[in-house]
Design goal:
GO terms for molecular function: glycosyltransferase activity. The protein has 384 residues and is of the alpha/beta class. Helices cover 39% and strands 15% of the residues. The protein has helices at 2-13, 28-39, 55-59, 76-79, 87-92, 122-127, 156-177, 188-198, 236-246, 259-264, 278-287, 302-309, 322-325, 340-349, 357-364, 369-383; strands at residues 16-20, 45-47, 65-67, 101-106, 131-136, 182-185, 202-204, 224-229, 250-255, 270-274, 291-293, 314-317, 332-335. Strand 5, helix 7 (156-177) and strand 6 (182-185) form a beta-alpha-beta unit.
Amino acid sequence: MSNIKCQMANINSLKIALVHDYLKEFGGAERVLMALHEIWPEAPIYTIFCKKASSSAKIFKEAKIIESWFAKLPFCDRLMSPFRFLIPLIWKSFDFSQFDLVISSASWAVTKGFLPSSRLGGITARQHGGVEVCYCHTPPRYLYGYETSRSWKTSVFVRIYAAVVNHFMRMYDFKQSQKVTYFIANSREVQQRIKKFYRRESVVINPPVDLPKFTIHNSKVDYFLTGGRLEKPKNFDLIIKACNKLKIPLKIYGAGSQENYLKSISGPTIDFLGRVSDEEKFFLMAEAIAFIVMAEDEDFGITPVEAMACGTPVIACRGGGYKETVIEGKTGVFVEKATEESLISKLQDFKASGFKPEDCRKQAERFAKKRFKKEMKTLVEKYA
């Protein structure tokens, strides 16, 4: 018992900083950051910029946010992608020498490698400049051939520019990854990417999922559901085309750059709901026949877990993080290929009555925020 108390006193005495790409929208990465902030509320949050009046700015209004010099530029949120080559200078402008422990939440902006000698680990690392724990949502997708929501293929000049910049950014990303003391991956899928691209080992801690508090029920309404960020990698277009051909009702919530295009290809059975609150989303999930997700290489995928928490089975593309959350035949089914034809075949054979809401809920509870906090605290106390 005395050893445990000593360890807790040790972690509580450390100066801790949280680092996050940028605060613009409130998605899965920001939910992780919020959980980290709840564990260590006194730790300042360093970020490239925090877009005023955004959902993230409102949610983190009580936190101590420290922005970079880039945040002072007009339209900084729009400039971030084309000016990504400035990322090394942006992160270098922060001084983390005063901190014993840096916990980075990394995906897009090479948010890692802040402490020069952190690979030493534990007490030795603190003696030489601190410990860094990197919670990796994924190595930057745009650097390693994974589809992203932004298109750089609009012209030959842009393609050449992107190829040159991304080449040097990959070199920078690898260099920074070697400075990290310990990696935490958000899924086994991402763990494999960390091993492949960084040649580093990692521990998997799945991200926190907010579970609805209402009691699940067996009554379903005659519609399928999908939604989230309406971006190209999510393959909403093939979901719509499949439902168009079968003339089955599909509800879509959320917003994104693909929204107008998706509306243009939708038939009379497709209903766009726009942005909805978490309460409305959970209600929609609870009444749906099934929740459909068709991204081919999802890093983790929170929405299918939310649907299962509402007692609703999932129809998912067999790939990425979906393979780690959906239990085939018990909480959902897999579509072998992300094609319109494969999804149509699965929809025609799908029977919601073959799935028990309580099984779906039980599986979702494995990913609750309480579990995430416990695992993160235990691991950080061990590493620090």
